Amino acid sequence: MDFEFTVIYKTSIVLISGAISNSSYHFKTVKLEGKPLLLSINQNARRLCKQEIKKVISVIKLYSKQDLQIALMKQLDNSLSTSTDNLNAEFIKRYLAYNNKMTIIVLWNGSTDMDILERLQINNYNVLNMTCFDVSNNQHFYIQLITMRNMRIIYEYSLGMYHKQGRMLNLVETHTILCSKQHKGLYPHDPCYDLELTKCIFNKMVQQYQYKNLVEHF
Fold first, then answer.
1. How far from 211 is each of 142, 156, 203, 214, CA to CA, in Å?
2. Which terminus of the chain has a smaller tally of CB atoms within 10 A, N or C?
3. pLDDT band at 116 (very low <50, low <70, confident <90, very high)
4. How many domains does the chain have?
5. pTM of this prediction exceeds 0.85
6. 191 lies in which domain range?
């Protein structure tokens, strides 16, 4: 699962779009689109008014990373004009209930995504976060699988040395090291693109760790 968002008024999250998919490769990614939602603390989700939309646009235009700015503006324009209406808790809950099997929501660096789920009142699900971190501060990076319930690292996979400033690799950097496949037709910060990379990384981790070992933690 992946969400595209920004923040206004310091603590209010604006949910712009998202994507959801079963981790199996034969399941297509579903784009979550609809009118953007304002997710304020301890309040029900609601659609933005015109003044709030203008505020969102002004906030996005202040982003220093131009690729992120362009991607979010494109997502916002699409959400405001689309006739699709599945960017809501009801649709996500129905999707997660498919087949009544054990559901594990997989996120990439998903602390804010987790916050979004809570504000949408999508609770009581198993959530697994993936990140890629320089554990020993020596530019040797590990992909970590972390259960969000207790913030426990259940598996680490060594990616080896990678020279960059900072101790965390982003999604594209991690995927580039791990997989040579090119996911065409999409662009970074598009939720469908980000989710395809997340699925790819997750499935490779499951191959290493084994699914039976993974589910023992839930």
1. 19, 15, 9, 5
2. C
3. very high
4. 1
5. yes
6. 2-216
